[in-house]
Every structure is written in C-alpha cells, then in structure tokens.
Specification:
The chain is of the alpha+beta class and 193 residues long. Helix content is 16%, strand content 31%. The chain folds into two domains: 117 residues, Glutamine synthetase, N-terminal domain (Ubiquitin-like (UB roll), Roll); 61 residues, no CATH class.
C-alpha cells in the first residue's frame, strides 16, 4: 500500500515513535543504517534526502567523492517490533548528491532496474527479490586456538544428508519460503519466492 510522507509521520505519531532508522544495503549485500530523531521526519527526507559518508560503506565511494544522499521510500515504512525504543524504519534509495541520479552500486537500485527491464520486455509484470539464508545445523562444535596449535571438531547428523527439508521461521512480508539443500553437504538454504 502506497504511503505518503504525511501518512508516515502519522504512523510514527500514533505509535509514539522516538527514532527514525534509515536503512540501505552495501555492495556485498549487508544492511547498513543510521538513526535520526523523529523530529527530523519531514518532507525533505523523502524529497531532498539526507547526506551520508559513502567512503565508510564497503564497495561505495573513495574519500574524495564520499558525499552521498539517502532518499527515504515512504512505502517501506514500518514500526520495528524488536526495539525497546519505538522506532520507525525506512528503506532508502542511494543517490549522487550532484547529479541526483541513482547510485549504480546500490543493490536496491540494481534490483529496481532489473524489475523495470522484466516489465519492459513483457517477461513479467512483477518480480520478488529477497535474501537467501544459508546455514548449517550442528549437533556439536568444539574448538581451541593457542599460539602453538589450534583445532576444531564439528559433528552433525545432517552433514551427510542431502536434500533434507527444513522449515525456517517466516520473515516479515515474505509470502513463502523455499527450503532446499545447497552445494555443501547438509547445508540447507531458505530463499524467498
């Protein structure tokens, strides 16, 4: 459901929000974020954006070209239920502050371009993008590291089992998760469909 900046402010007010958490993804795909006081939740955040130092983000900018902008996407606003201090989270688009063009290394922009391409070619009118959670399940792990030696011991009944299905916890806004075995023996993965 599309939201306007004023609707986002009303959601924040109704929930007693104190903090606005601005989120984006770095080039390797790790969530990055910083927070601002709720008093700074204004139309400018959605139109003009807020500056940040791109040189401190992996895969982004060199120090001499580090100024970047985050433009908050009102459609992504949600109250984070896991935090003690009432917080509204917003996913942001990364822009170049001089050209106001989308940043080419922003994974969100890359996904948006791919979806636009799919729509333009008629291959699809909608696409879903999400993380693939890869993990191992161990029965026992022991290790030690000293100056003269180190060791590890891993025991898992699933290490030799291929194709075993797991049922991961459903995540926010994901309609369905697919579980399947990965390349590593006994390594299940959960991907969004």
């Amino acid at each position: 459901m599309a939201k306007t900046p004023s609707e986002v402010r009303q959601i924040a007010k109704d929930a007693g929000v104190k903090i606005v958490d601005l989120r984006f993804v770095d080039l390797p795909g790790v969530w990055q974020h910083f927070s601002i006081p709720v008093e700074d939740l204004s139309d400018e955040l959605f139109e003009d954006g807020i500056g940040f130092d791109g040189s401190s983000i992996r895969g982004y900018q060199m120090i001499h070209e580090s100024d970047m902008l985050l433009i908050a996407d009102p459609d992504t606003a949600y109250i984070d239920p896991t935090l003690q201090v009432p917080t509204i989270s917003l996913i942001c688009n990364v822009l170049d502050p001089l050209t106001r063009q989308h940043y080419s290394r922003d994974p969100r922009y890359i996904a948006q371009k791919a979806e636009t391409y799919l729509q333009g070619t008629g291959l699809a009118d909608r696409s879903y993008w999400g993380p693939e959670l890869e993990f191992y399940i161990f029965d026992d792990v022991r290790y030690d590291q000293r100056s003269e030696c180190g060791y590890y011991y891993i025991e898992g009944s699933r290490l030799a089992a291929q194709g075993r299905r797991v049922h991961p916890r459903r995540d926010r806004d994901l309609d369905r998760l697919q579980a399947r075995a990965r390349v590593g023996p006994g390594q299940p993965a959960a991907g969004a469909l």
